[in-house]
Write a structure and sequence with these properties.
By secondary structure, this protein is of the alpha+beta class. It has helices at about 15-35, 55-60, 65-100, 145-160, 165-185, 205-215, 215-230, 260, 290-300, 330-340, 370-380, 385-390, 400, 405, and strands at about 130-135, 140-145, 195, 235-240, 240, 245-250, 285-290, 310-315, 320-325, 330, 345-350, 355-360, 370, 395-400. Strands 2-1-3 form a three-stranded mixed β-sheet. A three-stranded antiparallel β-sheet has the order 5-4-14. A three-stranded antiparallel β-sheet has the order 7-12-11. Helix 4 (about 145-160) packs across helix 7. The chain starts with 12 loop residues before the first helix and ends with a helix.
Length: about 400
């Protein structure tokens, strides 16, 4: 190669001019290709060099030896993570769903599956010699109910289910005796036997009892059904005839002679002591009435500005026999029913232009006290002891022997 050096002076002017023109065109082309970016300060940024992909050298090298083992490892991991747990869960899925749908707790395979207690109805298995036609007050329809099922639902409607079983047994005898006596001697020209109200005995269907008792329905009905089954077919008799087995909630410490509240004297409905009732939540109660209300209710005139004269006579059981108020006389039963008092054992206190009625007990007071029966049961007395305390000189007999005409219906 020629080592001769050239200076700018030795280069022809034409070549310089051509070279300068070429350089300008290259710079212009380069400026058009690059974006006009601005810095935050508004100045033009330097042109960026074209991006070149720079891969790691090891990626540019062909390598196929790792692909197969990697695929196998990944396949195994997917199998372990997804497929095997699914195979474990599936066999148990149907059993869990069935348990949730039936609401029954699962038991081991060797155990015996048990039905929920609330769906057992032992009373349906009891032998009922006849059925009772009950007029339902709300639906105005007649429900035909086997005797023992009727008794069970009356007991559950009339007596608290938390009472002692012996008290519930006594109530079952009273309820069964009442319906037998009523069906034997009723003289009503009706196409039914009884109503479901306090006119006869309170009766509620299973659906109604479930609604009233709520979550307590199961265990309370179990106790009631136990009591009914233990006394199946038994009734109370006096001189071989079913009695009128009156009962009520709470006494004032004594029961009432039948003739002191009703018209008839019945030898087995005598006044007896019942001290257990003082523990009843219904033992004491108060009602307050304005003098004007008392005047309107009893149909009398009272001098509101003066103390109203009140005189009371009482029965053997300390209930009001006669009430004389400002020269007007009323029976204790009349006053109780007119003012809807809880008991006919009441006192009256005048305070300014109001009367305060304080009652003891709850109910008419004749026959068996329910809270008294429960108190006796808590003291260890049996249902036989209870009924023979509240119903004097009675015997426990059977429906078959006492009411064959009903059994033959």
């Amino acid at each position: 190669m020629n080592n001769r050096k050239y200076t700018t002076k030795s280069i022809p002017k034409a070549w310089k001019k051509k070279k300068s023109s070429f350089s300008k065109r290259m710079k212009l082309k380069q400026q058009q290709q690059q974006p006009k970016n601005l810095s935050p300060q508004g100045n033009k940024m330097k042109s960026l060099a074209p991006f070149k992909s720079k891969k790691p050298k090891y990626l540019n090298k062909p390598s196929t030896s790792w692909k197969l083992p990697t695929f196998v490892v990944l396949s195994c991991l997917i199998t372990i993570i997804l497929i095997i747990p699914t195979m474990i869960v599936i066999p148990f899925g149907d059993n869990n769903q069935a348990a949730e749908e039936s609401n029954v707790e699962e038991v081991p395979e060797q155990g015996q599956e048990q039905e929920p207690e609330t769906e057992q109805e032992p009373e349906a298995q009891l032998d009922s010699p006849f059925s009772v036609e009950v007029m339902r007050d709300t639906s105005d329809s007649i429900e035909d109910v086997p005797l023992e099922e009727y008794v069970s639902r009356v007991v559950a409607s009339e007596m608290p289910g938390e009472f002692e079983v012996e008290a519930l047994k006594a109530q079952a005898l009273a309820a069964r005796t009442y319906i037998v006596n009523h069906m034997l001697f009723q003289d009503e020209n009706e196409n039914f036997d009884v109503t479901d109200t306090t006119t006869h005995q309170v009766y509620k269907s299973e659906h109604e009892l479930r609604s009233v008792l709520g979550s307590d329905f199961g265990w309370k009905m179990d106790k009631v059904n136990e009591a009914v089954a233990a006394t199946q077919g038994e009734i109370l008799t006096y001189e071989d005839a079913p009695i009128t087995p009156a009962y009520f909630s709470t006494s004032n410490g004594f029961t009432e002679n039948s003739e002191d509240y009703w018209d008839n004297e019945l030898p087995y409905l005598r006044s007896v002591e019942s001290p257990w009732d003082k523990d009843s939540p219904k033992y004491l109660h108060q009602e307050v009435f304005a003098i004007s209300v008392v005047e309107d209710t009893l149909g009398i005139n009272l001098a509101s500005e003066d103390a109203v004269p009140i005189e009371v006579t009482r029965t053997e059981s300390e209930r009001v026999d006669e009430l004389a108020i400002a020269g007007n006389s009323f029976s204790g039963k009349e006053v109780r029913e007119q003012f809807e008092l809880q008991s006919s054992d009441f006192t009256i206190e005048q305070k300014n232009d109001h009367f305060i009625f304080t009652t003891k007990g709850f109910g008419h007071g004749i026959g068996m006290s329910q809270y008294g029966a429960n108190g006796m049961a808590e003291d260890g007395e049996t249902y036989q002891d209870i009924v023979k305390h509240y119903y004097q000189d009675v015997e426990i007999d059977t429906v078959d022997d006492t009411a064959p005409t009903l059994v033959a219906r």
